[in-house]
Amino acid sequence: MSDIEMNVAKLDHHNPLVSPQASGMITTQGSGSVADLESDGRSVPVVLDVWKEIAEDFVAGVEMIGHVRHKNLVKLLGYCMEGDRMLVNQYVDNGNLHQWLHGCPVEVSPLTWEIRMNIIQGVAKGLAYLHEDIEPKIVHQNLKSSNIMLDHQWNPKISDFGIVKLYGPEGNDKAGRLMGTSGYLSLENASNGVLDERTDVYSFGMLVMEIISGRTPVDLNQPKVKTH
Questions:
Q1: Whether 30 contacts 147, CB under 8 Å
Q2: Rounded-to-integer distance, Cα 162 and Cα 150, Å
Q3: pTM of the model
């Protein structure tokens, strides 16, 4: 474990290591807020993400997420158990995919077809790791463009693990509640609350369409018949 991870792991509300970031354009990452961590005399940005599940599942969730290690997944650095329970996550420094697809600050988008294909492949590899390479497997259940963080080489990292759902060997869920975002969540999941890997696969398909077309899954500016 690095010095940064060791310092973050001991974080609590009485420890002044973390303070809100005072400057910079990016003040959020996924559903979390960017803050500065003082480590060995230097300031390191991290992301504070409030735990959204029931409190009793926090320790089990942290233990599970803490073992997740993949280049296309945001890394958990530590946690806070005092006051609001929080996850302390890796900060990724180039914003999220939604910002670059729908709010690009330059006239010509830097997202070439090669970069877009790299993003699609990276997200697919991250999901495959969650679904197939760890036990219990993890269903993210809120995959969307604003939860895909990008570094300066345009490599994607899936974020927002505060709402993941854990599955045991028999497939029974261990924590979580049905989440999701309109347009990324299938009608079957929305109506019956069934949650498994297919939830993420559907969301991934909608994400691929968004990356290719440049349109959001739900476009309220379109006529009603073309909204989805």
A1: yes
A2: 19
A3: 0.76
DSSP string, 78-132: EEE-SSS-EEEEE--TT-BHHHHHH--SSSS-S--HHHHHHHHHHHHHHHHIIII
With beta carbons less than 8 A apart as the criterion, state whether 28 and 34 touch. yes
- Give residue-wise pLDDT tens across range 106-147: 888 899 999 999 999 999 999 999 999 988 888 888 899 999
Q: Does residue 51 contact residue 58 with C-beta atoms inside 8 Å?
A: yes
Q: How many other C-beta atoms are found inside a 10 Å radius of the C-beta of residue 214? A: 13
Closest CA to 53 of 203, 189, 160, 186: 160
CATH topology of domain 97-222: Transferase(Phosphotransferase); domain 1 (1.10.510)
Q: What is the rounded CA–CA span in Å between residue 96 and residue 105?
A: 13
